Each structure stands twice: as structure tokens, then as C-alpha cells.
Fold each of these.
Amino acid sequence: MRMKSCPRCEAPIDDSARFCSQCGAPQNEEAAEELDQYVKRQAKQVVGGSGGGSGAGGGGSGDVTAADVFGVAAEELTEREQLWRRGSYVLGYATIVVALTQITNPGAWLLLLGGIAILPPTRRLLGLPVGGTFKREAMAGLYVVFVVLGAALFFVL
Ligand SMILES: [Zn+2]
């Protein structure tokens, strides 16, 4: 019986072994494929368990993307939406940073609220009770109101 060593952990393993007994690394193409299939099945179960009916049509290749696993496929972002999203983050963080540097002024707190309001995760959180995301136009409006009020306080005080 010939012995070889695992390419991953160097443990001596039987030449006919398909998986390393030490670290479980597949030792040939076939075993690697088998492991791959197993992982994909597990991933599918996770997705199925979280309530997203599979409903797969004609025998697909069984590809599981990160989107399937993490359930983000439902929200396909168009280019315009991504632009909105990026803009919201930049504007939100910039506003928060400015507010933090001026935090001794009461107006800064309104700027802070505005910055938080326009950040995309906030839209999602506020949208939870109604089962979706808050309209970005509404959040942008909220942002403008907070910022204008905050700026007004800066001038008044
Ligand atoms: Zn090994």
C-alpha cells in the first residue's frame, strides 16, 4: 500500500484515500467535485429553510451564488439605484462628520439626524414595519428638512 502526503496539511494518507483523514481536504478531482456538490446542497437547504421557495425550472446547473445564500437576490439594484445609494452614503456620512465637528451647536444635532436619515440602512429599518424600504425621496426630503433647520439654528445662535 503506497502512502502519499496531503498537499494541504502534509499528513501521511493512503494513496487510495479520497479525502485527507487529518484535515478533510479532497485528494482528487472527483472528491473535490463531490465536496463542491455537498456544499452547494447545504447552501440550497439554508436558502430553502429561510422560506424562499426554490421553484427552480428546467434542470439548472445548480449554481449557488452569494446572492442566493444571503437572500439579496430579491433586490436587484439598477445603475441609477446604485448611484442613489452611493450618493446617500456620501451625503449622509459627510453631514454626520460636519455635525460632529460642530456638536456644541444645537443645530449640529439636526444635521446629525439628517445625516442618519439619509443613510440607506435607515431607510430599510424605517421601512420594516411596512414591509419594504422607505421611499428614498421621502428620506431625501427628511434630510433636507433637518439640514435646513440645522443650518438655520447655526445662523440664529
Ligand atoms: Zn490534510
Amino acid sequence: MDPQPELKITNTLTRAKEAFRPIDPSHVRMYVCGPTVYDFAHVGNARPVVVFDVLVRLLRRLYPRVTYVRNITDVEDKINARAKENGEPIEALTARTAAQYQADMDALGAERPDVQPRATHHIAQMITLIERLIAKGHAYAADGHVLFAVPSMPDYGGLSRRDRDDMIAGARVEVAPYKQDPADFVLWKPSSDDIPGWDSPWGRGRPGWHIECSAMSWEHLGETFDIHGGGLDLIFPHHENEIAQSRCAFGTHTMANYWMHNGFVTVEGEKMSKSLGNFYTVHDVLKEWPGEAIRLLLLSSHYRAPLDFTSAGLKEAKAQLDRLYQALRNAADVAVEPEAPAGDELMAALLDDLNVPLAVARLHEAVGRLNKATDPAERSAAKSALLGGGALLGLLQADPEAWFQGGGDDDLDPAEIERLIQARVDARKGRDFAEADRIRDALKANGVELEDGPQGTTWKRAG
Ligand SMILES: [Zn+2]
């Protein structure tokens, strides 16, 4: 019997690729930091969403139960500032941008997490955590604020492995008179009347960002859990501070056993910034490109490596998907089992620290086999590998006809195209070939190409 396939992931805590061993193999628990909702998500925000979506799909194949939690930060100073700028209520801004985020991530084929907790629904848990930290001597109240006392935790900094001076500089924390130590960070701060605030033992105020994730992961996953993920930019100070809060509040050796971080995203070779004019929101890119092409581009380099998001890359991703879907379209008559397996080689690629680029190469190999094979069993196996592997990557699950027929707003709608195709069939039946050709040419002029095959006429929009 083959040994149980083993998942290996790179753990930022140990800087090593390790075998994944869940705390409870019957229930794997994962937390990923979610968006602060005040604006459209940009392509850099979307990368962790699709990366951890692939991971959770893989975990669900390997384990009977997985709980995936991704929070929504709906109380934060950037939100307050933007609401003021827009002249709208904070709740209206956060509700609108959270819904937009959901729609954009849906369009990228990311399955929704099991729980999407909102920070404002977990204020009581945050206050409880802060009280515990104070009681244990890890935090202190001063001037309406509560601060985490960094020197109270001897092994603070274990995730980022920065030295003290680096940490103080890197955190860009203000040197405030109420701080006992320059590295101390805010757990709670006072709110003026015009911004959101909650009653607390330290007066009306609001939480710091870091305590939000410690409270939400505790509520939904427990004091310790398996995987904590996010972008590389969150390692310090955000994740370092989450670890400090949770470990010191619970007296645990660890917050999560495995910390996974995806690499940075650049756009056309440059750091994305509004001033450079290369700030791509998912919402805007979706106007021109299918979500699946954006997803494939975001998965095109290994998750830990940097990713350059370019127009050429989008074009290339779209062309790859055209090839994959064309193979499925040509094999429309080949039967497969409903829950097609992913194929051992593709699975092996993903088990090796989520090597998605290699897994995508395995899909292309399956196309090669599918296109070449004549034996029905071989064709069925190749199509299964394509569909099963695609499902694991969140790709190729659309109807191939729909993939080629997805068009822009100005295009003929599919019902109209089908009507014209039927008119052409009728013309040919009546041996009116001039009319049949006229319809074909008219469709072509509208960017629709017909293909006559044994199953009848299919169509696609010319790329
Ligand atoms: Zn977080």
C-alpha cells in the first residue's frame, strides 16, 4: 500500500520546509488575515486570497474537516479617515466595500471561507484579552490607552527575527509619552465622539488592529491552531504582535504551529502605488479580463516568490486557459467520473509546498495526452486529470462553451447568436447556401466564429 501522501509547507517560524502535522487530524484549523474594508481590493490584496484558496482546497482533499477563517477588519483608522473624506457614515462605507470585496473574490473563483468574522462583532473578546494581558503583567493602561509591554515577553520577535532597534524602526510606532518602552504597541486607544468607540474599563475607545486578529482567531479556532497565513508584509509588526498577544494571554507556547506568507506583487515591474498610476484594482481588471485568467496569473509564480502582474501576463494566462478549455471542448463526448481525481503527479506538486506552477504544467501535460490519445480509456483518464486537477486549483470548472462565449457588453448576446445559428441551419436545410454563408459572415463581422462538427455547430468569440 502507498504511504499516505504528506503535505510539506514552508514555515516562516522555523524558516524551513516541514511536514504538516495538524493538532487534530480530524479537524484542521486555518486563519488568514483579511481585508480592511475602505476601498476596492487591489491585485496585491487578491494574491493571498487565491493562494490560500488553493491550500484550503488541498487540505479538504486530505482531511475530513477544515475550518478556514478570514476576518474582515471593519474598524481601523484608515476607514474613519476615508468615511470622513467621502462624507458618508462609516457603516455605509464598510458594508459597501465588504460586499464589493466578496463579489471580486467570488469572480476570482475563491471559495468563501467557512467563517468571515467582523472585528466590530468581537469587541467583547478583545476587551477580555486585554484584561487578561493586564492581569498577567503583559500590558498596562496609560492616558486612555492600553499598551502591550514588549519587554514583558522575553522571546518577542521570534517570527520576524529582527533585532530590537530594527523592530522599533520597522514598526514606525510613534514615541508617545504614555509608552514605557518605545517598542510597546497599542491594544486599545481612546475615541473622540465623531469616530467609532465602545465602552471599556479604560473609557470609550477602540481596538488596535493587531488585537482584532488575536480575538477573532481565538473565538473561531481556539487558543492554538494549525496554520496562520497572510502576505509577507504582515510578518512584522502585525503577525509578530498577534503572536505576542495570544501567547501571553493564554500562556501557550505557540499561537499557530505553521505560519505561511505569500510574496509581494509588483505591477509591470514596479511597486504598485497610486502615484505611479499602476494601481490595479481587481474590480477594474475584471472589466477587461475573465476572473479565471486573473486567478491563473496570480498563481503563475510560486506563492513565496514575488509576482509581477502585467498585461502580457494576463494575455498569456488567457491564452493558456483557451488551450485548456479547447481541449475540454474537443473532448465534450468523453465521459468522466463525477468526482475526478487530480492525478498523482499534480497532487505531488501541490503537496510539495504548494508548487502551483508545476501543477499547472501537469494540466498542460494532460492536454497533450488528451489530444494525442485515441483509446477511449486513455482519453477519459486524461480528461479526468484535467478536470480533477483543475478543481484542486480552482480552474477549468466552467462549461467550455461558456468560456469561449463570454464576451464584452457590446457583443451579440448568446441568445441572439443561437437564433442566427438556427436560422443558418434552416437555410442549409432549405439548400439556401447563399443565406447560410451570409449569416456566417455577419456573425464573423461581429467577432463570432462558427465551427461545424459532428455534434452540430458550436461558436466562440474570436480572441
Ligand atoms: Zn491579522
